[in-house]
Amino acid sequence: MRRVFILIFITLLSVTISGQQLQSFQDKTSKKYGFKDASGKIIVTPKYDYVFSSREDGYYTVELNKKRGFIDNTGKEITPVIYDQATNFYEGLANVKKDGKWGFIDKTGKEVIPFNYDNAGFFSEGIADVAINGKYGFIDKTGKEVIPFKYDQVSIFINDRNSVKLNDKWGIINKSGREIVPIKYDAIDDYNGYPAIVELNNQYGFIDSTGKEIVPPKYPRAKNFSNGLAAVQLNGKWGLIDMKGKPVTPFKYSYTSYEDVTVEKGFINGMLRVAIGGDHNTMEPGWVGGKWGFVNKSGKEIIPVKYDYAKDFSDGLAAVKLNGKWGFIDLTGKVVIPLKYDNVYRFSKGKAIVFKGDDEITIDKKGNILK
């Protein structure tokens, strides 16, 4: 499962600091990076191989000769460029690696937590994960061990919750180390919050934020909740269940793909695209064939599954295709723009581009042609 260690490195960055704007730039001749202020004045002469954005304004990670260090918004090096790895400041401390071990520095460059660790994450909610001899535990900002080194894998704390792995099983602990969710699942997907998907013996269910199993792992496939409903698969067909696990639609839909699966995007304008039949297109990710329609947040099939294809609602209208021609329907399913176009784009700000043959036309929501 996931280990959240999201570091967004940006080589061209701009950050507003104390009313000024610093921007990195690359010298075309030397290929080195430096910094300018908003007026274009050079604050740091180009001398670094790379520069990286800082999560906390006013500090930048820089790299020179495969070593890293930090500068502040005045261009002053707050640490020598001596570290094998250096990430960003989180809650005032940055994890850095030197001579094969990880420790932490503060914003003055002082090494405040010794380089004792084989690996180290960043601080979140006052504690950070660190590893010794392949086992992870947690320390506070003084370096004190607050959760023992016993886990095989961990994430970061968000709202006093952390997914941890022990002996190939996953559970969730709080900052005191107490198990909120027993360490018994094969996987936990809490990246999108709660209810979270859990996996046990290749079956999927859901837990709430207290760790209660609100839907037992019994479905071969499942997707995250959106607007109080989740898509789950049973006997090869998809349906929707509510937060209590009660089915609100029959298990009859075949939709499942990538960007074409609206359950992954949630309801749009209160409507969710569904399909019956068809197949996954392995050449271009998407669901092709079958018939398409829409259900609402109650699971009611508001727009019958009868179209050859349908796009998501946008500006209150959805593009639908039948017998090779495209048009638009409203949220009640009424055809408001006749199905007579060879291709269409979604509406945006009251306008849509449609095609008749090679002719590109812009129309309004009443179907009127705009100049």
How many separate domains? 4
- Structure class: mainly beta
Mean pLDDT: 87
Strand order across the largest sheet: 1-2-3-4
Give the total of beta strands. Answer: 39
Cα(first) to Cα(last) distance is 53 Å
- Assign an overall shape: flat
Output the radius of gyration: 27 Å
- Work out the helicity level: under 10%
> Runs with pLDDT <50, length 5+?
1-19, 256-264
Q: Count of DSSP helices? A: 1
**Quaternary structure of the protein:** single chain
Strand residues, percent = over 45%
Describe the sheet with the most strands: 4 strands, antiparallel
Task: Characterise this structure.
- This protein has 371 residues and is an all-beta fold.
- It folds into four domains: 1-157, no CATH class; 162-208, no CATH class; 220-310, no CATH class; 312-371, Thrombin, subunit H (Beta Barrel), CATH 2.40.10.
- It contains one helix and 39 strands.
- The protein has one helix spanning 262-265; strands at 14-17, 20-26, 33-36, 42-48, 50-52, 59-64, 67-72, 85-90, 93-98, 101-105, 111-117, 119-120, 128-132, 135-139, 145-151, 153-154, 162-166, 169-173, 179-185, 187-189, 196-200, 203-207, 213-219, 221-222, 230-234, 237-241, 271-276, 279-280, 287-288, 291-296, 303-307, 309-310, 318-322, 325-329, 335-341, 343-344, 351-356, 359-364, 369-370.
- The strands form eleven sheets. It has a four-stranded antiparallel beta sheet, with no helix packed on it.
- The chain is flat, with a radius of gyration of 27 Å.
- Residues 1-19 and 256-264 have low confidence and may be disordered.
